[in-house]
Amino acid sequence: MGAPKTRTVNKATPVHMIPKVWAQPRLLVVAPSRELAAQIHRVVTDLLEPFPELNCTLLIGGANHARQDESLKYRLPAVVVGTPGRIMDHATEGRLDLNKLKSVVLDEIDMLLKVSRQDHLRLLVNALPPPSRAQRVLVSATGQCCDEAEEFAAEQLRAPWRSIGPRNEVEMPPRVLHLANGAPDVDKKMRFLRRLSTSNPMPNGVLVFCNNFERARKVAESLRYNDIPAEVLSGNRSKESREKAIKNMESGKIDMLVATDVATRGLDFRDVTHVVNFELPPDANTYAHRAGRCGRMGRNGIVISLGGGGASNHRLQKYMSTLQVDILEANVQSGELCIQTHKLSKRVGAR
């Protein structure tokens, strides 16, 4: 085709439709959140350090699109880590060729299948090579997949596929102590957090879980009002705010990080010693995910659930049975975290 015709085609064709494939990775890792994708990218980059010819590129929403383009074009990554939407952006715009993939990992598959991400995930899966050409691995941190994940696996994996790990059990960190305090309302829960921040043993970092952003925001504001450095980690915050919160938690600039479940799924806070359920999780699986943020890599950890009353205690007792853990009563008195020797009873009062 001569130059005049080429120029005519270029004028008539949108730039994003012009084929210009730059990257043909062999491994694709898909994560449900930007923060988890960024963490995986750091780990993979460290693993590839002895192999300078192999590169890893991170593709997530909210990040500089042009820099991602440059990374795909000039680094020619063997591994791509990212979120479904941004991966599909680069694939449909012709900068990322998925046809050469040999393996695809879908991390935290139950979260990827949430309604808010399902459309992007379906588009991505349809663009992948068939299972006969590219191995597909579905990962769930607790070892227990939801029904939607089981159906997705049956639909997308090459038969016969197999599940590795405990099928009907949720694995818990072995060196984590599970406690409960019967604080019945927000004021008493906040008082417990204030006492905990200066208790013995001194927390190295506290991750406080709430069930929604608005509650998390108010808890963090109250902590800061009482001179306890705290920030919020939630999907409602901007990318910059979330990155700052994670960085400040990892560096020790804040004592408490108040978070929602989606924002922290899979994240590795190695130095966190305490997890506090300011609001009880809706199910045992969520409890396990929260508890898994401490006591990592064989370290000790403490999980404290706040809430009094029959319904709260009944729910915690169900978690004890499902997760096969003992939850002990506890309180902070005279600067000491005091633990009762008996298990959670049906009636726990605030102390």
Automatic annotation (TrEMBL):
Span of domain Helicase C-terminal: 185-345
Q: Which PROSITE patterns match?
A: HELICASE_ATP_BIND_1 (PS51192), HELICASE_CTER (PS51194)
Protein name as it appears in the record: RNA helicase
GO CC terms on record? cytosol
Q: Which residues form the Helicase ATP-binding domain?
A: 1-161
Q: Which UniProt keywords apply?
A: ATP-binding, Helicase, Hydrolase, Nucleotide-binding
Keyword Oxidoreductase among record annotations = no
Molecular function, one GO term: RNA helicase activity
The answer, when asked if Transcription regulation is one of the entry's keywords, is no
